[in-house]
Amino acid sequence: MTTLLNVDRVSKSFGGLRALTECSLSVEMGSITGLIGPNGSGKTTLFNVITGYEKPDSGTVTFEGTEITRASPSRVFALGVGRTFQITRIFARITVLENMLVATQRDEGWLRGLTRSKSSKSELVAAMEWLDFVGIGGLASLPAGSLSFGQRKLLELAYVLVADPDVILLDEPAGGVNLTLINEIADKIRALNKDGKSFLIVEHNMEFVMNLCDRVTVMHQGADLVSGTPSEIRSNPMVLDAYLGGNDDDDDDEELS
Amino acid sequence: MLKVRNVWWIAAFGALVLFPLIETNPTYTGIGVIALIFMGCATSWNMFSGYSGYVNLGSAVFYGVGAYTMTLLADHLNVPGNGDLFWLVPVGGLAAMIVAVPVGLVALRVRRHTFVVITIAIFFVFQLSAINFGFTGGTAGLQLPLIPWLETNYNKPFYYAALAIVVFATLLSVAVRRSRFGLQLLAIRDDEDRAAGLGVKVFAVKLTGFTLSAFAVGMGGALFAIFIGQIYPQFVFDPLFDISIALMAIFGGLGTLTGPLLGALVLESMQQYLAIRFSNGSLYLIIFGALFLVIVLFMPQGVVVYLSEWRSLLASRRVEGARVVPEEKS
């Protein structure tokens, strides 16, 4: 398998806080990669660095061989990296369908937007197809702000999908969602993966991650601790230490230095 | 078949066209000219600030630049005091757009509330420049060529020129709302970072919207300059203009099409009328204050949105089950 997305020794500090320390990660083409780690281990910061929301202090991020380390979020998206947010973000005051249309042309010049209509026939069809795929097609004409939390999660997934990205970064897709919907989301991800989409998933729900992912990377204190298949990860003692804070000596050393 | 909505638009437009033909009192047609200028400016302002949520409290920069461009060009080109002056109105709009680019490059670097403060600051830079530079005539202001038209007919050309600006601003606003660009502005209003993550080139889109909105406001300023025949810094770079335009749009309904039109028509006509009727230039401020309390308390989304919600509520009561309650999915 070839590497689709590669993060190489990325560091990022916020003032005195080191959020990422030489963190590396790769997502193989056609895989579902899980990213787990305790709260505050830098998972979301890593997402922000990959998608252009934060500029790293050092290290590189490459996507399909193109360096995107300091690219803008719109550029990263245009190249084919889509993402969802941990706290679901939708456009509340426009309709569900219009939410979809914002994303349909991922690499369109800004001047083109002035001269073209809001949507073409084919874009409308695609938008409706994806809404139906996630199961909220019937809500297309409602303002997105009237959706429930679960529906918003589905909408966010749908409008990332409508732009046909190659890799999709999901930040806690199962967070705060009931069990039925969790299974539904897992099924959708599997179906999309079969069609060739790659995924990088941050999630705290271990069952969800272990059942779904081909490979899992564990993050601890801003660095990648270990990578492997779900079964390897489950039996790795370092992972347990990271979550339960087994070996505290390292932490103390770092604080002193 | 004509839709009911379009019939209203045509009727409103017809009424505006016919007004100066029926009402010949120059006092009232004069109020009409000013009200129309404000309608055009408020609509154009709303095309950027209403759609994107970036409240620009420095739109008098565009207005003043339009007015000064008109006056200085008329002087330097020796344009005679007749209808030829009107050809310079679009030039005033273009000058405002040119000024909007560097202003936008600075002001749009920051978000929302900071943007509001920066636009106010930039406005005062322009006002102080107009007062202190020599070529603007300073506080003494500048004169425009006198137009020797009869008083009874003097207002008419201005009225129809202002109406043309209103039509232009409205059509532009509609076109933007229907374009992909307009959708991107709305997306920026709702969540700018999310929009950027979905491929929207947010800075370019904001700057384009900001610059486009300057055109009609600049034209309004240029037309206003010839209408009153002389300009002073405090007249055309007027902080009350900044606030009025924003309040008119908010009064009618921020981000709606009819809101700014209605807001400007009602508020500006009322202000002018009260000033003349009671020969007290500040009386309107008291009434405006009370009016805005009512709006903010009871119709925070503006009159137009309030009325349309009220109407759909009535309709749903009449037709049973007209309001489909979305089924909870999760």
Description of the structure:
The complex is a heterodimer of chains A (257) and B (330). Chain A is built from eleven helices and ten strands. Chain A has helices at 43-50, 73-79, 96-104, 112-115, 121-134, 149-161, 179-194, 206-212, 230-234, 237-244, 249-256, and strands at residues 3-14, 17-28, 32-36, 58-63, 66-67, 81-83, 167-171, 198-202, 215-220, 223-228. In chain A, strand 9 (215-220) and strand 10 form a beta hairpin. The relative contact order of chain A is 0.17. Mean pLDDT of chain A is 88; it is low at 249-257. Chain B is mainly alpha-helical and 330 residues long. Chain B has helices at 4-22, 26-52, 60-76, 89-107, 112-132, 151-178, 180-190, 192-196, 202-228, 233-236, 239-252, 258-277, 283-298, 303-318, and strands at residues 142-143, 230-231. In chain B, helix 3 (60-76) crosses helix 9 (202-228) and helix 12 runs antiparallel to helix 13.
Strand order of the largest sheet of chain A: 6-7-8-3-9-10
Categorize the overall geometry of chain B.
Answer: globular
* Uncertain residue ranges of chain A: 249-257
Query: Which shape of chain A, going by the Cα principal axes?
Result: globular
- The fraction of residues in strands of chain A falls at 15-25%
Structural class by secondary-structure content of chain A = alpha/beta
Q: Provide the succession of SSEs of chain A.
A: EEEHEEHEHHHHEHEHEEHHH
- Tell me the span between the first and last alpha carbons of chain A: 41 Å
**C-alpha Rg of chain B, in Å?**
21 Å
Largest interface, counted by CB within 8 Å of the partner chain's CB: A-B, 54 and 31 residues
Write the element-wise H/E pattern of chain B from the N-terminal end onward: HHHHHEHHHHEHHHHH
The strand count of chain B comes to 2
Main beta sheet of chain B, described?
A: 2 strands, antiparallel
| Sequence of strands across the biggest β-sheet of chain B | 1-2
Uncertain parts of chain B: 321-330
